[in-house]
Structure formats: structure tokens, C-alpha cells
Amino acid sequence: MTCIIVDDDEISRDIVRQMVRKTEGLELIAECKDGIEAYNTLKRESVDMVFLDIDMPDMSGMELVSALNNPSVQYIIITGRRDQAIEAFDLNIADYIVKPAQYSRFIKAVNKVRDNLNKTILDTHNKEDIYVKSDGKIIRIKLKDILFVEALSDYVIIHTNTDKKHIVHSTMKAMEAKLSSNDFVRVHRSFIVNASKIDQIEDMNITIQKKTVPVGASYKNALMERLGII
Known about the structure:
Elements: E1 2-6, H1 10-22, E2 27-32, H2 35-44, E3 49-52, H3 61-68, E4 74-79, H4 85-90, E5 95-98, H5 103-124, E6 129-134, E7 137-142, E8 146-152, E9 155-160, E10 165-169, H6 172-178, E11 184-188, E12 191-194, E13 200-202, E14 205-208, E15 211-214, H7 220-227
Parallel strand pairs: 1-2, 1-3, 3-4, 4-5
Antiparallel strand pairs: 6-7, 8-9, 8-12, 9-10, 11-12, 13-14, 14-15
């Protein structure tokens, strides 16, 4: 599971960083000193969870969660305040830890996030279609009709084999959660493809029905493994 730490206090960041390093299955992507830096990072990077302080300059932790409005990210509040737990859970925060954070409490919160993420995958697995909001309408799209998904700023474009394109306000991380069947694989920061639709792969490019999708260098090995290529 990928994560970032957001806290304006250097000592607090160091404590959480040490706990992350001790926890198997966690990968620290970035550390942010304030909410604005975290906002820009989370718009650029896809992560599973955020360890987040509340009181920070310019943008508080609560304001950050509201501004991002990304249900695919799990937030764990780690704060010296006890009085904002109710407000935090109203924002669907995964867990709320009062400083000084103990490792036993930290790992309990991490396991809760892991269970939440696993439940999301189970809930979406084996579905034959998804529902998305596009052009003010709720549209049903059959998974077998999707060729690939392309990132476009704060939106994604769903390309289908009927040559229709659906522009949806979403993140790539949220689309990965929706497209959790074995047919779909992330091949680039900006692309998810339906592996069953791949015609060929050449020079780090995928061809799907005469359309070209680039393969990011950091995604190549996972793609080859998913396709069973030796």
C-alpha cells in the first residue's frame, strides 16, 4: 500500500516515517509540510492512504480532505487534538489517532485501511459493468466494451470499442478501484488498459484497435508479469 505523510511538524513526520518503515507492505511516496503541498502531491500521485495532521498553516487537514473529495484515498488522522474526531468521521476518515502515536495504535489503523481497500476490491470484483456520471447523466458501461482509460487533468476519458468517449470527473486511482478485474492493468501514470483488448506491444507502446497507448518504464515489468510473458 502506498502512502504519504502530511504534517508541518518535523518531529511528528519523523515518528510516523519510522513507523511506516517498520510496517511490511507500506511504501512511502512523499512527505509534505503543509496542506497545499499535500494537495498538489495528491493531484499528481496516486496513493492508498494519507497520514494527516489537522492543524497546519494555509490549509488544515480537514480542508485538504474536503478539497480533494477523493473517496478512493483512505485518510488516517494523527493529531494532538481530541475535539475534532466527530467532524473527521463525518468526512469518512478511516481512523483518528491522538498524539503521541503508539505503534500498536498505528498498526491497528493501517490494518483497518487494508481491510477497507480489500473490501472495495471484493465489492467491485466480477461485476460486468460500471456506472459513471458523464454529461450530467448516469451511464452504464460494460467492462468488456472498455478499451482503455486516459487521464485528463481532474478527469478521465473512458474509450470504448464503440468509438464512444465518456469524460468522467474522477482520478486514475478511483478508476483502478472500479476496474479491479484481472482484465485491466495500469500501464502508465495516465493510462489503464483492458489487457484482453491488446493487439500488440512494440517499442514501449500498446496497440488497441489501431489506437496507441504508451507504456511507462516503471509499469513495464508488472504488465509483462500480468500478461504472462517470459
